[in-house]
Amino acid sequence: MALGVNLDTAGALRQIDGHHQRSSNFYLHGAQMKTIFEACQPRGEVLKGEFKDEVFRASLNDVHQKKAEDVYQNPHLFFDHTYRTEGLRTLLREALGRLTGVKAANSPVIRLETSFGGGKTHNLIALYHLACCEVSPDWVSDLVPKKLIPQKSVRVIPLVGSDLDPSSGMKHGDITTYTLWGEMAYQFGKAKGYEQFEKNDHDRVRPGETGIKDLLGDTPTLILIDEFAAYLRAAKGIKVGDTNLADMTIAFLLSLLGAVGTLAHAVVVYTLADSKDAFANETSQILQVLSEASKVSARQERVITPTAETEIAPIVTRRMFKTIDQDTASEVAETYHELYSKWTDQGVDLPPRAAQAEYTQEMSAAYPFHPELLTTLSRKTSTIPNFQKTRGALRLLGMVIRRLWDVQPKDTFLMQPCHLDLSVEDILNDLTSRLERPKFRHVAEADIFSPLSGSKAHAQAIDEPWVQAGKRPYAMFAGTAMFLHSIVQGVASGVGPMDLRLAVLQPGDDPTLLQKAMDNLYDTCWFLEYDGSRYRFKTEPSINKIIEDEMDLVGKTKAKMELDSRIQAVWKKGPLLPRYFPAEAAEVDDDTKEPKLVVIHYDAASASQNKDQPPELVLNIFERTGASGGYRTYKNNLLFLVADKDQTDPMVKGMQRYLAIKRIVKDEVRFKEFSKNDREKLNSALDEAELLVRVAITRAYRWLYYPSSDALKKKGFLSREGLPAQDQGEVNKDQSQVVLKRLKDLNKVLTADDAPLPAAFLKAKAWPGEQTFMTTEAVRKAFCQKLALKMLLDVNQLKKSIRNGIEQGTWVYFDTNAQRAYGKEAPPPPISINEEAILYLPEEAERLGLWPPKDTCPICGKEKAACTCKPELCPVCRRPVHECECGKPVCLRCGKDPCACEDVLKAEGPPGQALQSIFDQAHDRGIGTLESLEILVEGMGSEAVNDIVALGLAVPQMGKAECTVSYRLTAEFGTEQTFNTFFKGPWERYKRLKTVSDAFAREASKATTRMAVTLGFQDGLETLDDRFSMMKEILATLNIGKIQVTAEPVKKGKG
């Protein structure tokens, strides 16, 4: 009978390897270890699949009637397939010894019992063949001594209860028997024998012991009674006077056993079903009667167990295999033992027995089966009534062997529970429909192996990446082992993690991958549950299935609405301005404000790993602007985020799952119906699902398109980069920062902490062709327009580059409001980014007379050659006032400007910042006391005048100090109206000048002023003194602008 294999799939085992590979990749002590395909040869009928149920269903009656399968009917073939158990040896010696008279004291009554079910009928057939002299004594010399084998055929009476019909009777030509004793009489002596019990048979009244002895006489007789309990159940319905035929039959059994006990050459062998058998009640009734009649039976009866539990493995291997390499069996057992010990030492949780020496012996004895496979079948699966115990196990194992030898997955050293390939129809049917477990078929097809082409069960989906990487399908193997342990219902159902690992792991495996598969199965399977100690499949849907069904009710429309909202919360406004889901170019402004991060809707356009061409929608927005379809000007101000095509569906499903769980949890009435364990699982699943939605969003939106002059024209000058996958620990961050970091890595953005662009580079990239000037605002806009430039995220970087250009002579900076130009070697100007600040090329500035400055009279403004003004002389140095340097502040120590002292402290900036810098420098250099402090304010215009006026107001508040002032003012009031003054002296004298000079400075249309206040501290000023902090507060309160501070520490040794 051929196995029914699903032709639409490759099969579970075939997924391990794409081709047949008999040899292994595993070495033991330097030698390549053999696989089961190299070390074992299954019997021909097993490989051909030429076995019907009858092959595994031994029938004593069929053998007697010469119509049994050859494996039972042919004595030599029968004994060739039969493993010599101790129970069989005992039975044969006990029964044949009495029949032949060689051992007349042997028991006349033998009862066969077994827990596994293997052996009762088989042993009866073995005894039948020997009693009938159908086999050569030499063929069974290892089983029974030759002297015990009858020289001539013994009269054998087989009585098989399940074949007898107490209602309609058993027809033998003109004779019909209705009872067990009627059938026995006919089997013993045909019509003549039946005459003795004919009346008892028709009246359904048992004969007594005397009648039985008269029938049997001294003829060596073997009575074999099988399936006795099955007959009793059928006989219960037939009334016999005040009793029934079942009770009458039990009474007959007592009479038979009593009669046989008095006959020298008669033996009765009968079988009783297991207490857990379908006929358990009838068996219990028989045993109770026998117990009560112990005076009749117990003293003469011997109870034999045909098959010990330790003999199950050799029985099965003998029945299934023609040859087995025992050396390989030992090597494989040793290898598994070493691995189990190693994994146990590494912390892998395995049953303690796995690393024990005794288990190594079990593996060697069970080879090529793993002990866990046979143990599961014998102790758990065999308890299912319809499994039919021995024949069920042999039938199932035969199909498993044939499938394995057909596929021959590499590195198969033992047949383990995980090798039951549920993709094979006959195997799946044997474990479901045949066992009256039809609902488990849906469990296997949903969670382990799908029979539908193009559809994957949950275990298959988990295994897909591992199988593609050459790994074993851990999820299907684990699921299969769980399944085998689950079809047994009740407390025995399910398998613990330790036993599960033992059922799956083999040489070359990674226990961590198996654990991951177990976890993934629990998270995704529809019918799997884990109660903290056992995994088990149930026919009722699990929480995962309930959630899956709820997802269908949520629908995609609602999920996408919520998903769109979540996406807009992931990328926040910062240096980049998000623009979500534009449908056309007009929805994205073409301006020079913050760079825009355009997030394309996943349904509008998507991208894939193997195609980096920008989507049409992205190209359209990048190229065009407005409803008129004009070309976009500021392309370098756009970025695009596009979802990955393969990640879009998982993202939507992730949101569906979250909303489905939320619906269940928020429905108070429905939620209360779940068990406490399920409620906890749902709450946990809700939190996890919400986090996974964010993970799914970041994994989907992984394609960043950015403008680049290096990109191909056919790609619209857009380059593409993949954003790094975000794990659960990172997804709560603002994902705009992830984009920004990637742009920094690509050197596409200019931020505050970057080095400023060299002026020469900026001029080459931003300056329009032949143009001789450019406003600073136009330069800023160029960053939004020129693809070769970085995106400008900090305008101060542009100011630094402009200042660099002034210093390098790249251009001249002209402030149109102040009508002042700044070129190379000019004092640094305050840089403004607007349309009033213009950058001129040096030659253009010179042509316009802006730079270099002309040598003019400071009084009339005319060139000196045309000036007729008589210059005012400095009363101190007698030089023209505009050339006088008397008012220029010099260092009190070295007399130079700038100060050349190495240990002075210098700082500039707003008062608070400058004085704090002095404090920090003093701290870093270990300076605790200052001898002097100089504060300098200088500049042009009203702001400088206001700063000097404020500084004058601050001095009286500075506390005890020796104060000197150096002050200079040049003021213009219109045509040929000027005022120049210079003062250097103590503060008390300056106060008299201050009122006049402040008034002149404020009235001037143009003023240039400079004031240096030097505070000397005779006792020193400690930097930690409150006066130092007070000075900072006073200057900051008066809103003084930029100041320059020079502090002189107290000389070493002083004070």
Helices and strands, with pairings:
Blueprint: E1 27-28, E2 31-32, H1 36-39, E3 40-42, H2 44-48, H3 53-56, H4 60-64, H5 70-73, H6 75-80, H7 86-100, E4 109-112, H8 120-131, E5 155-160, E6 170-172, E7 175-177, H9 180-203, H10 209-216, E8 221-226, H11 228-235, E9 239-240, E10 243-244, H12 245-260, E11 266-271, H13 280-292, E12 301-304, H14 312-320, E13 321-324, H15 326-345, H16 357-366, H17 371-379, H18 389-407, H19 425-431, H20 439-447, H21 458-468, H22 474-486, H23 497-504, H24 511-524, E14 528-530, E15 535-537, H25 543-570, E16 577-580, E17 596-599, H26 616-623, E18 624-625, E19 630-631, E20 638-642, H27 645-666, H28 668-672, H29 676-700, E21 703-707, E22 718-722, H30 735-745, E23 749-750, H31 759-766, E24 773-775, H32 776-785, E25 791-792, H33 795-808, E26 812-815, E27 820-822, E28 837-840, H34 842-847, E29 905-909, H35 911-924, E30 929-940, H36 941-954, E31 962-974, E32 977-986, H37 987-1003, E33 1006-1022, H38 1026-1037, E34 1043-1049
Parallel strand pairs: 4-11, 4-12, 5-8, 8-11, 16-17, 17-20, 23-25
Antiparallel strand pairs: 1-2, 3-13, 6-7, 9-10, 14-15, 18-19, 20-21, 21-22, 24-28, 26-27, 26-28, 29-34, 30-33, 30-34, 31-32, 31-33
Helix pairs in contact: 7-8, 10-12, 11-12, 11-13, 15-16, 18-19, 21-22, 21-24, 22-23, 22-24, 25-27, 25-29, 27-29, 35-38, 36-37
How would you explain this protein's 3D organization?
The protein has 1055 residues and is of the alpha+beta class. Helices cover 42% and strands 15% of the residues. It folds into 5 domains: 13-43 and 325-376 and 392-540, no CATH class; 53-80 and 86-169 and 208-307, Rossmann fold (3-Layer(aba) Sandwich), CATH 3.40.50; 546-743, no CATH class; 749-847; 889-1049, no CATH class. The strands form 11 sheets. Strands 29-34-30-33-31-32 form a 6-stranded antiparallel sheet, covered by helices on one side. A 5-stranded parallel sheet has the order 5-8-11-4-12, sandwiched between helices. A 5-stranded mixed sheet has the order 16-17-20-21-22, covered by helices on one side. A hairpin with a 2-residue loop joins strand 9 and strand 10 (243-244).
